[in-house]
Amino acid sequence: MLQILCTGTPHSIGLQHGKTASLEISRSIEFYASLFQKLSKLDWPAVTQLALTYQPYLSSNWPQYVSEMEGVAEGAGVKYEDILALNVRTEIAFGAFSDGCTALSWKGEGGSVLAQNWDWNNDQLPNMICLKIQKEDGLNIQMITEAGIIGKIGLNSKGVGCTLNALKAKGVSFTSLPCHLALRTVMESSSRQDAVSTLEASGVASSCHILVADATGGTGLECTSEDIVRLEMNSDGIVTHTNHMVVKHKESVVEAEDWLADTRFRLERIDELLDGVKGKGVTTEAVESLLLDEKMGCGASICRKETEEKGSLATLFSIVMDLEKTTAKVSMGRPVAPVEKLVLDP
């Protein structure tokens, strides 16, 4: 797996990202161009034009992200709007993409752990990268992301981490943070509370669940284009989530019916597995073992295997973060048979 260390100004960080991952970025563009055409009947020029709708808001409110994306484009030798489109792909898709993931945060005796199996199209696995950023203010960030996308799943040197679950509710906002850039703001934050406050102030442009955690525990944020509703830790210090809403939103928020039939099964299953280990104290090893689970329900498992029914949807990586030690263990591919393992240590 390509690991990229980027330092300096936002533009410099993007430039190093783009130069080093130019091949992977070109393949990511090809992958999403094909997917948008197939699922949304949009060709790539139409996709990039839609992406530019976000430019006024981002330029005015998040110029550092614009500068970094410009650097990525320059380094990779592609147009800026190509990189912008990758970073706002969720908002352009209007819910057409079906990435399904299982995430959990667990704070208790022994530590604070944040973890996820990230499920997506197998064809995108070769275009995943490990992005390591050293900012000028001394903050370090490390994440697993798709080449060209500047925010995804990972943690920073202050022990603040995030995961992502896809949700589907109607609506999109062009004056709020696109979800992948919202993830980046979490990893720019000094604490869980700081991250939550930032996202609640900015809003998130489309529906998703972002699980934010640090050494003090986790907070789930169910986001739509109209609101953000918190999902707090239960009495055992646990937050779990899959791909449907579990808290009440505004009456005007309309969620799609279970677009992944297995979402409720996976949530029940991860809760059941946690019930079996929570009395033994929090350990990364215990959480790693939960993400290996292959018990099937409604056509899928927590450790998702590609099936004919689901097309090429499978677990592309598993990540378990120890937020007190500010480290993470990553298994690329299905964690029962990883193609590579690595450690993040911002």
Low-pLDDT regions: none
Mean pLDDT: 94
The count of DSSP E runs of length 2 or more, i.e. the number of strands, is 14
Strand content: 25-35%
Outline type: globular
The largest beta-sheet arranges its strands as: 1-4-5-6-7-8-9-10
By secondary-structure content and strand pairing, the structural class works out as alpha+beta
Q: Assign a percent range to the helix content.
A: 25-40%
Q: How many DSSP H or I helices?
A: 11
Gyration radius, rounded: 18 Å
Largest beta-sheet characterization? 8 strands, mixed
Give the ordered list of helices and strands. EHHHHHHHEEEEEEHHEEEEHHEEE
Distance between the terminal alpha carbons, to the nearest Å? 18 Å
Domain Peptidase C45 hydrolase: 106-335
Protein name: Peptidase C45 hydrolase domain-containing protein
InterPro entries: C45_proenzyme-like, Peptidase_C45, Peptidase_C45_hydrolase
Pfam families: AAT
Question: Overview of this structure, please?
Answer:
The chain has 346 residues and is of the alpha+beta class. The protein has eleven helices and 14 strands. It has helices spanning 10-20, 22-40, 44-51, 55-61, 63-76, 80-87, 89-93, 179-187, 192-202, 263-277, 284-290, and strands at residues 2-8, 102-108, 111-121, 128-135, 140-146, 153-156, 161-166, 208-214, 217-223, 228-231, 238-241, 313-322, 327-332, 340-344. The protein has an eight-stranded mixed sheet. It has a six-stranded antiparallel sheet with strand order 11-2-3-12-13-14. β12 (313-322) and β13 (327-332) form a beta hairpin. α1 packs parallel to α5 (63-76), α3 crosses α6 and α4 packs across α5 (63-76). The chain starts with a strand and ends with a strand. Residues 106-335 form the Peptidase C45 hydrolase domain. InterPro entries: C45_proenzyme-like, Peptidase_C45, Peptidase_C45_hydrolase. This is Peptidase C45 hydrolase domain-containing protein. Pfam families: AAT.
